[in-house]
Every structure is written in C-alpha cells, then in structure tokens.
Amino acid sequence: MGDPKVRAVWAQIEKVCDPELDEPVTDMHFIERVEIDRDDHVTVSFRLPTYWCSANFAFLMANDIRVHVEQLDWVSRASVQLEDHMFSEQVNTGVNTGLSFQKTFADLAPDQGLDEIREKFREKAFQRRQETLLLALRKTGWSDSRITAMTLEQLSAFRFDDDEPAKQRPRYLALVRELEHALAPDDRVFTNYDGSPLQPADLEDHLKDLRSVRINMEFNGALCRGLLNARYKELEPSEGEPTLIDFILDKVPPTASGGHTKNTRQISSD
Amino acid sequence: MYKTPEGKDIFVVDGHTHFWDGSPQNQSNIHGKQFIDCFYAYHSALSPPEEVWEKSQFEKYTENQLYNDLFVDGPDDVAIVQSTYLRDFYKNGFNTIERNAKVAEKYPDRFIVNGAFDPRDGNKALEYIHYMKETFDIQGVKLYTAEWNGKSKGWALNDPKAYKCFELCEKLGIHNMHVHKGPTIIPLNKDAFDVHDVDYAATDFQNLNWIIEHCGLPRLDDFCWIAVQETNVYAGLAVALPFIHSRPRYFAEIISELLFWVGEDKILFGSDYAIWTPQWLVEKLWAFELPEDIKQQAGVDLTPEIKEKILGLNAAELYNIDVEQRKATLASSPIMIAAE
Fold first, then answer.
1. Do residue B188 and residue A56 have CB atoms under 8 angstroms apart?
2. Which of B17, B34, B146, B278 could pair covalently with B79 via S-S, beta carbons 3.0-4.6 A apart?
3. How many C-alpha atoms does B57 have within 13 Å on its Cβ side?
4. Averaged pLDDT for residues B14-21
5. What order do you get walking across the sheet with B140-144 strand by strand?
C-alpha cells in the first residue's frame, strides 16, 4: 500500500517530538494507525507507554500531530485518537474540537497553559542537542577556545563524520534561531540557554551538566520503549529494522514495533 | 546474605519491597487494573526472561513466596517493606501497614515495616502517624505523592499540610522519608514528575532523611542537582538497577552520575520486590564493572567496597542496624525452618 497520501501523513507526523524525550513520536512507536477516509479526513491513532503518562505531554503531542497533518493541502480534517490513557476522552475531545489545554482541563489546571512546561523541556532539548555537537567537535581535536568561538556560519558548514551530530545540527540550529541566540552568520553559535556566550574555561563543567541531561533523556527514552513494548506485547526490533518505507508499504503490522533511527540502533547495540 | 563468587559474605538490606494485593478481586475500578498492569509492564520489560512471572501470580503472591524470594532464594538479610494504600483504586488498599506488619511479626529480625500517610487527610493524618508509631514503632514512611484522594490527584512535599506531618514525624523519631515521585496530576500544566519539592522539604527538615526512590527518575538530572546541595538526600536504586541486565551501559551511566553527584554513602539498593526479585539484581550488581570510558568521563569508580555500602551498609546506617550483631542473630535462626 504505497499510498502517497499515507506516506505524506507519516512524513508530517515524523516532525512531531515527544517534548520530554526530544525524539520523534514515530521513533518512539507511539503511532498505531493512520487512516484516511473517502473525504480525506485523516485519523491518527496513538498510544503511550503507560495509562499514567503525563497528560500535558499527551495533549501537546496530540495537538502537534493534528496541526502537522492539517498542514497538508489535501487534508480536509485531521483527528487524533489517544488510546488507553486515563485522560483519553478529554485529550481527544479537546484536541479534535480545537479547545485549548486550559479549556480542556479547566478543573485540573485552572487558568494556566503549558508555557512553563514547554519552556522547561525546550531547555533540555537545547542542552541535549548542543552536547552532541560539542562532544563531536572535541573529538575532532578542536580546542575549547576554538569551539566556544565558533560562529553560526562555521557550524553550518562543518563536516561531521558521524551521523548523530549531523542529525542534531539542524535541530540545534533551529532552536538557536528560535531563541534568537545566533542570527547573523558571524554570531557565536554556542551559548548558554539564556544566550550568554560559553567561556572556554567553563566548557568542562558545562559539559558535565549537559551530560546529566542527556543521560536522563536517553534513559527515559529506553524506559518508555521498554514499557510500551511490554504493554502491547511487542518484540524488540531485531536485525533489519523496519524503516519509514516499511510502514508506508504496510510491511509492518500496525502494532508491531519497528524503528528507523539512530536511537534504536544505539539501544540495540548496548 | 549474599556470598560473592570470591567467597565474601555481603550484608544485604533491601531498601524497597512490597507485599501487595493488586488482584482483580481487590481492584475497585479501571485505575486499579491499570496500576498493577503498569507495574507488570515494568516487571516484564526489565526482568531477564527466566525471571518473569505469570500475571496472576504477580497480582497477588503469598507470604511464603515473599519470604522465599527475599531470604531463601534471595540474598536479603533485612528487607524494608513499604506501605502504599491507594484506597481510591483498591478495596482493601494495595499494601497497607497491617498487611505488612502481619508478615513482619513472624520474622521480626528480617523485616522493617514502614508506614504511609496522606497529608491531605489533615488531622486524621496526624492521628494516623501517632497510631503507626505506637502500634508498629515505625522508623520510616513511604510517601507517594501521586496518590489520588477523592477529587485531589496528587500532592507535593512542600504543601503546608505535609509540613505538619513532617514536624510530627521528626518529633516522634520517624526519620526516614522514602519518597516515590509517581506522576502527580495536579496542577496538570506542570511537570508531573517534578522533584523540586524535595529540595524544599529536605532544606526545611534537616533531621529527616529523604530517600528518593528510583533516584528521581524520570528526572534524574534535576534530582542530582538537588541531591548535591542537600546532605540529607539519598537515592534509592529501584527501577535504575534492573537496566543492569537489559541495558548495562545505561545503568553504568546512571550509577556513575549518582556516584558523582550524590556520592557512594547515599545510594541504597532496593529491589522494588515484587516488581523485581533481588537475587539476580544483587548478583549482577556485584559482577558489574563500569566501562573504562564512562569511568574516565565521570571520574568515579564502582569498587567492591562501594557496592557493599550500596547493598546494605548505607541502609543499615539509616535504620540503626548493628550489622555484626544482626548477622549473628540471623545466623542463629535457621532460615529454612523459619520459612516453614
């Protein structure tokens, strides 16, 4: 079933990250089904590792999935179905009728949105992405002062040998631009999260802090994968992991596990 | 007692165990089912295949099985059995202090029974703390901030009502606060696993020991930064330790973080029985060595001396167990006879 529409929907969903893990929801195998009816109404069903997973993150992901799928011109409407969750009903109703988070959960989060939590995890994503690049540059033998002096232009043009920094670079740069920490080509590209420049003498301690963030996120990612597999009785990805194309060609049963990124590979090689 | 392959006897205090009833008969609603199902997912996701139980056995196990898994087939010398009520989910509670105490009174040298309270109960919580101290002489409690209580879907350690309870605990000599940070729902817009309330409580109650179960996961990074500033904050290893089997490198990274930030004197072994059984965990921990690159990067090591502290000596210190004396007492009460 190499339906180009299904393929397009998957490609859009792939842009949605679990905010807590900074990994695409597709890599996490959260997406169970994509259905497109005759009227081009798209329904995306997803599930999470436990019944108790944070409802605010569930809401953010559900909302992001809907927004991304609706960016496709031909889609008449996009709906999400969160399954097996303590707040399935509220999240589904809220997101599918375009209610805000506050309105959806008026009783449990009066007058408050998700800005603070979004901000907290944006910082962690920034740190995790940055660490990957800093470590890769150190590995190539760059001195700390050369690294901290690096500009936006230099980082954009740098040739990374490994996949991981090459993958994280555009993600890091996107955040740097979003935060307006570096906009001009000769702006320094490595800053603290508050935008202050990194000093060579602080780099070692800075990296220690970033290391904690990364280990925590990777660990949570591994835990979530394990719990999701156990919950839905799925097998660990084996050799020849399915790729996006396998999903598109329907070679992977809807609930079967599969991964197609470095993260899955990293875990399997442990 | 755990006998190492080199023939050394290691005193083991299992800092986190349960004797629960999560069976369908005891479940009040879908949440009760989902709660034990979630535990079972942890169990089956992270145990070696040969250690995975049948679901029905996992939901409810017998006293004999508990005793066997911990002390006969298992390496524990002493087990701290925690209480968790979850009255909104389970008709008779999940594992109440009465249920725990009933087993413990048969084997007083083996078990330490911890209580539990819910600060949202107000004065009733204070009365309950008195009751637990007088009846069971508890030294510690398990605090489950994610517990539902009617309309409330969670609480924080720095809630004023909680502070009243801690003041009383301090007064009565209940010193060990085992904190489990489950997903707290309220307020829903916040991070459900936020650990910063630990910081407040630990600062304001310096005479209490704050043992953070599963070392603050899934907020290990935030937890480490808190623990480094507070001398009375400890890390319980449950949930992190089972990764030693399925993802040893992740475990190495986690334990090296803990050793660096929290320190070797403040890490406590806990099997979280019956989510995991202690024998394989202890065997694997004893055999485990940090990969060289992680050791270099983190600047720490996991030596046999440190393992011995983690496995029992640190907890013995917190619970005033005289290790040599307890070893002698246990040696004089033959284990198999006691189990019958």
1. yes
2. B17
3. 12
4. 98
5. B115-116, B140-144, B176-180, B209-212, B233-236, B267-268
Q: What is the pTM of this model?
A: 0.89
> A86 with A55: CB under 8 angstroms?
yes
Environment class of A133 (CB within 10 Å of its CB; exposed 0-12, middle 13-18, buried 19+): buried
Count of beta carbons in the 10 Å neighbourhood of residue A106 = 12
Give me B266's structure tokens: 């403040």
Given this model, what pLDDT does residue A263 score? 32
Mean pLDDT to the nearest integer, A85-100: 95
Torsional sign, CA B310, B265, B200, A124:
negative
Q: Which residue has the tokens 């040998």?
A: A161
Cβ-based neighbours of B185, under 8 Å, separated by 6 or more = A55, A108, B146, B148, B153, B154, B192
For tokens 């059995």, name the residue.
B81
Q: How far apart are the C-alpha atoms of A204 and B298, rounded to whole Å?
A: 11
Instruction: Determine which of A139, A215, A225, A232 to mutate to test the interface with B (most B C-beta atoms within 10 Å).
Output: A215
Whole-number pLDDT of residue A38: 95
CA distance to partner chain B, nearest, from residue A177 (Å): 26
Partner A contacted by B80 (CB < 8 A): no
Closest CA–CA distance from residue B74 to any residue of chain A (Å): 25
Which two tokens mark A252? 């992977």
Cβ within 8 Å of A, B 252-271: 253-254, 257, 261
Contacts of B217 in chain A (CB under 8 A): 216, 219-220, 223
Tens of pLDDT, residues B271-284: 999 999 999 999 99
CB B210 within 8 A of CB B230: yes
* A117 reaches B (C-beta below 8 A): yes
Confidence grade of residue B334 (pLDDT, cut at 50, 70, 90): low
Please check whether residue A251 touches B, CB under 8 A: no
**What's the distance, Cα to Cα, between the start and end of chain B in Å?**
19
Residues in Cβ contact with A226 at an 8 Å cutoff, skipping those fewer than 6 apart = B45, B46, B246
Identify the pLDDT of residue A134. 97
Q: How far is CA B281 from CA A259, B20, B62, B76, B272, in A?
A: 29, 21, 21, 11, 11
Does B37 contact chain A (CB < 8 Å)? Answer: yes
Mean pLDDT for B111-124 is: 97
A164 C-beta neighbours (distance < 10 Å), count: 15
- From A86, A109, A213, residue closest to B221, measured CB to CB: A213
Task: Centre a 10 Å sphere on the Cβ of residue A100 and count the other Cβ atoms it contains.
Answer: 13
Type of residue numbered B228? V
Instruction: Give the C-alpha separation, B40 to B275, whole Å.
Output: 7
List chain A residues with CB under 8 Å of B46: 226
Question: Does residue B251 register a pLDDT over 70?
Answer: yes
Question: How many Å from the N-terminal Cα to the C-terminal Cα in chain A?
Answer: 34
Sign for the CA dihedral angle at B295, A203, A217, B309 comes to positive
